[in-house]
Amino acid sequence: MHALVIYAHPEPQSFNAVLRDVAASTLTDSGYEVEVSDLYAMKFKAVLDRDDFSTVHDEQRFNVTLEQRHAATHHSLANDIVAELDKLLRADLVIFQFPLWWFGLPAILKGWIDRVFVSGVVYGRSNIFERGKLKGKRALVSVTTGGPAASFGRDALNGDLLDILAPLHRGVLAFTGMTVLPPFICAHVPYAGPQERVEMSHRYREHLLALDRLKPLEMPRLADHLEEIESSMKARAR
């Protein structure tokens, strides 16, 4: 089995780095071959533009989706995209390790998704959700927050973390066909003492060891929405 850990934090000594290493060692001990993409160390290019492609599908208008499909077909994606895409396609388990910044992903991680989740390779017009091209892979989000645990929840100040993570869980991972596992959350990390950090590391290891027993998050099914989609397409064709 293969696992890919995508790590996005600019500080090599961060607690996110500790969690990255916990994942790598735990999964290795469990029999996985583990690859790590350390986006900041790699100086990964976060901005999607025409430099991502050595061919041009349409010189007049830059349609990202069509250019990605064309480049994938003609083997003309940028080398760094190809390298990361190969890791993604090899992986049976994909882990995203990052700090929650402004209720979202660090820009470099969003850029990795923008550039590596190539149209025509990881999803297509009808290859989404349970028909997505990454079906069979499992995905886990491991995230740290600056706010305390009490500030997250249905009626809490910051809202429910599952709602905050929905654009990633639903809009990226489930959308491309992956099975989305319950996330691992470490709250109030900048203010946690050494013992608290040790305890969080141990909890993460236990979370990883229990992956096969975790109940995946419920996600939409394309099959349940085909009628409304077909109706909408017919209306547009009139």
From TrEMBL:
Write down what this protein is called. NAD(P)H dehydrogenase (Quinone)
PANTHER family assigned to the protein according to its UniProt record, in alphabetical order: NAD P H OXIDOREDUCTASE-RELATED (PTHR10204), NAD(P)H DEHYDROGENASE [QUINONE] 1 ISOFORM 1 (PTHR10204:SF34)
- What residues does the Flavodoxin-like fold domain cover? 1-208
Q: Which Pfam families match?
A: Flavodoxin_2
Family membership, please give it: Belongs to the NAD(P)H dehydrogenase (quinone) family.
This entry's Gene Ontology molecular function terms read: NAD(P)H dehydrogenase (quinone) activity
Keywords from UniProt, A to Z, are:
Oxidoreductase
Q: Which organism is it from?
A: Variovorax paradoxus
Q: Name the Enzyme Commission number(s) assigned to this protein.
A: 1.6.5.2
Q: Does the record's keyword annotation contain Oxidoreductase?
A: yes
Give the matching InterPro entries: Flavodoxin_fold (IPR003680), Flavoprotein-like_sf (IPR029039), NAD(P)H_dehydrogenase_qn (IPR051545)
